[in-house]
Amino acid sequence: MTKTYGFDTLQVHAGARPDPATGARQVPIYQTTAYVFRDAEHAAALFNLQEVGYIYSRLTNPTVAALQERIATLEGGVGAVCCSSGHAAQIMALFPLMAPGRNVVASNRLYGGTITQFSQTIKRFGWSAKFVDMDDLEAVKAAVDDDTRAIFCETIANPGGYVTDLRAIADIADAAQIPLVVDNTTATPYLCRPFEHGASLVVHSTTKYLTGNGTVTGGCVVDSGNFDWTASGKFPSLSEPEPAYHGLKFHETFGALAYTFHGIAIGLRDLGMTMNPQAAHYTLMGIETLSLRMERHVANAQKIANWLENDPRIDFVTYPGLDSSPYKDRAATYCPKGAGALFTFAVKGGYGACVKLVDSLELFSHVANLGDARSLIIHSASTTHRQLTEEQQRKAGAAPEVVRVSIGIEDADDLIADLDQALTKATA
Amino acid sequence: MDYSLTLLKRVLTEAKTVAVVGVSSNPVRPSYFVARYLRLKGFRVIPVNPGLAGQELFGETVYPDLKSIPFDVDMVDIFRRSEAVPPLVDEALERWPSLKTIWMQIGVEHTEAAAKAEARGVTVIQNRCPKIEYQRIFGELRMGGFNTGILSSKL
Description:
The structure holds 2 protein chains of 2 kinds. By secondary structure, chain A is an alpha/beta fold. Chain A has 17 helices and 12 strands. Chain A has 2 domains: 7-286, 3-Layer(aba) Sandwich (Aspartate Aminotransferase, domain 2), CATH 3.40.640.10; 290-426, Aspartate Aminotransferase, domain 1 (Alpha-Beta Complex), CATH 3.90.1150.10. The longest helix of chain A has 20 residues, at 290-309. Chain B has helices at residues 5-14, 30-40, 85-95, 111-119, 130-137, and strands at 17-21, 44-48, 56-57, 60-61, 75-78, 101-104, 123-125. The mean pLDDT of chain B is 95. Chain B contains 5 helices and 7 strands. Chain B has a single domain (5-141), classed as NAD(P)-binding Rossmann-like Domain (Rossmann fold). In chain B, helix 3 (85-95) packs parallel to helix 4. Chain B is globular. In chain B, the strands form 2 sheets. A 5-stranded parallel sheet of chain B has the order 2-1-5-6-7, sandwiched between helices. Chain B has a two-stranded antiparallel sheet with strand order 3-4. At the A-B interface, helix 1, helix 3, strand 1, helix 10 and helix 11 of A face helix 2 of B.
């Protein structure tokens, strides 16, 4: 590119040039369903994907497009497709790659909701998932077979404590000529840019740190533009003629932009998991301060994790920024600005003490969310990871005796005081 | 190949007449709709395809080859397999001493032929689509959520 800009500049400006119709400096909320065509030929060219433009807001919308360009830019990708939630983004990401009989090799430490989506719901599409320990590279290699079409993992696993060795997994994906898909929700592009470590696709729940204030749900799929969809013959949706577009071949026609065009023209068109412009507006507002918030999130998380680890009422803390974490070096490699703000800790006293702790906190909110400006706490085993077996819960880092916290941007000392008084009650 | 936005913008602003080699008359083939798009954006597009020679496309006669075009072009856009590139480059360099640009479409690359043209002072773009780059530079890709690389607070 002609000129490179710093992250703080990109998070404010990317995708948000002044509105061409009005000069409005902030991105307007284009609350419209449809867009008028110049003439019949213009309409035909748009429907044939021969021109880029607005047809119908299930496919494209100017407010959502601004957000897509911003996230694509921050991740260092060529394009992005936003959708209605992080879960939608996962289906949208896999949809161009998969077909009945195909599988995805996924980390066994994924967020519980993703494990349920991958182990149960995608079977109804004829897809399947094989869950493996991403630290066991031989097991990852062994799990990849002729029907595998992607490897899927999280940068920093939710419920926290684990950082994936993205480069090692990307090398396995490269050797198998399949893309590595990384859920970068918990790290955000401020802490880690998975494309720089070999990932081909990134997904986000924009609900979390990108929006940053717990207002709207959203998701996003970002393409690095680096994957060759034609080379292996494994991805006919992208390399072979598409009957619904007069035999157009996405990769041949759009090159590095093929996957993103497919996400709009097939994914959003037929799955309809569209982000609405109001949601895009809130998320654009949030991203403007992403770096500032993430700095505070990780500084607070580090301070609170240190405090907890030195407290006699605590059994262990899983924060990868701690010297005691087996993932400390890996966090320093992949997330040098900080190891995220999500972690678990075990309270002496087990399940009962965890429940009492959650009930006794005043500032921490007991909610099933993360990445809010507010500090959040949840007992994963009885909520987000409830559908899993105890063995799956332990593998996912959500054992019955641990609670998960998402550290906010409040004063760290106030959060520590709140934890202190609640722990006193919980372990009394 | 990484090309700066400045270079691509200069190429697409300087070119007025573009010969499109390997153009199809099938409206859903990229070689047709890329050429049609360039015509819509004000370029004079000269179609080249021996199989369609003498017919009319985009308001212009289709020529069988580059050497038959009886006037100057600024840019040659190649929609052929990479192996077919060297003789086309030779033909273009011989036909137009003042040729500005040779553009090879997505999937089309030829290092030696490109070097030869560049040695003659011709700008060479490989493995790119002029339509997509035009859309990137002049704002259309913004509408699809693509990373245009352009930041601006100007209208």
